[in-house]
Amino acid sequence: MPLHPQNDNEKTAEALLAALRHAVLDGPGSTPSRVRQAVAAAKIEELNQELRDYVETLREHAWRSTDDQVRELLAVGWVEDQVYELTVAVALGAGGRRVDAGLAALARAEARRAAGAPPTATVPTQSLPAAVQATPVAAQAEVRRAAA
Amino acid sequence: MRLPSLSRSWRFSDRVKLKIIRLASGRPPADILKILHYRREFFGEPFTEWVHQVLRGPSEWSVGERELMATFVSHLNQCRFCEGSHGAIADVTLGPDVTAAVLADWRTAPLRPALRAAFALLEVLTLRPAEVGPEHVEAAYAHGVTEQGVRDVIHVCGIFCTINRIADAVDFAVPDDKGLKGDAYQLLKRGYAIS
């Protein structure tokens, strides 16, 4: 598909993400903004235990979240609306972290290019060790998460 | 869905809209639609604006390629709902063989070099974001990806690392194949923005 010039009226993806972050982390809600920001940034030390477990599960392996985890939050006094807000904030924290990391790497690559520096050693896109290549992608993901 | 009250608190116009979707499709609206319309200013509106721009806006990646990237990130995050939903769109646009080959092993899948380089970046950014550096971007440049192309890949990753977690936390029901296909045609026709 050809690359079209950016329409002047079109908002950039970065601007749209900034608006989303503002709505979720700073906008009106039933949970204090401070708490939403803490879970988004995974400031675990600022959270009580039941919230800590929920945040860690969502951030690292959300597919393992359970009915019981949500029930526990409701049992200690959080209401569904608050659990929803916290869920969205944690998820956006994880997604935003990837965007920030990617854009920072992009900025460094662009700075190097502007300075005329040769590319750093390129990352192979096809030549991982045979043992890794032979492992299904989902299993590789599990191994890498466990190693992280 | 784990938070049932999210299915009961929509504004009137959205209740009508979701009722029409139910009548037209012959089945209840997908859980994702319930979430996106619940207090839509908080998440649904700004999120779908971002998604629509990244997945349907101008890009050097085709719509099908971006949907394939979405499927791949969801696969890495083990989110069955999002993998199924976006995989169905990739199947329609690129063919089911391509989707299956990428999910089996993107390194050997029949992809153009630039798209293969995008998958290399997506994998590390999804699984090990702290390890991403300029060398990963330069590897994509070496295969013909532009700066804006890299930017688009990064945003696809961010979007699906967000919504995959919400889908699994709230426990979205996964539609059957017929439902996934029907949703895929609607998303191709209408896009993502709800506002």
Automatic annotation (TrEMBL), chain A:
<keyword id="KW-0175">Coiled coil</keyword>
<protein>
    <submittedName>
        <fullName>Uncharacterized protein</fullName>
    </submittedName>
</protein>
<feature type="coiled-coil region">
    <location>
        <begin position="37"/>
        <end position="64"/>
    </location>
</feature>
<dbReference type="InterPro" id="IPR029032">
    <property type="entry name" value="AhpD-like"/>
</dbReference>
UniProtKB/TrEMBL annotation, chain B:
<dbReference type="InterPro" id="IPR029032">
    <property type="entry name" value="AhpD-like"/>
</dbReference>
<dbReference type="InterPro" id="IPR003779">
    <property type="entry name" value="CMD-like"/>
</dbReference>
<feature type="domain" description="Carboxymuconolactone decarboxylase-like">
    <location>
        <begin position="47"/>
        <end position="123"/>
    </location>
</feature>
<dbReference type="GO" id="GO:0051920">
    <property type="term" value="F:peroxiredoxin activity"/>
</dbReference>
<protein>
    <recommendedName>
        <fullName>Carboxymuconolactone decarboxylase-like domain-containing protein</fullName>
    </recommendedName>
</protein>
<dbReference type="Pfam" id="PF02627">
    <property type="entry name" value="CMD"/>
</dbReference>
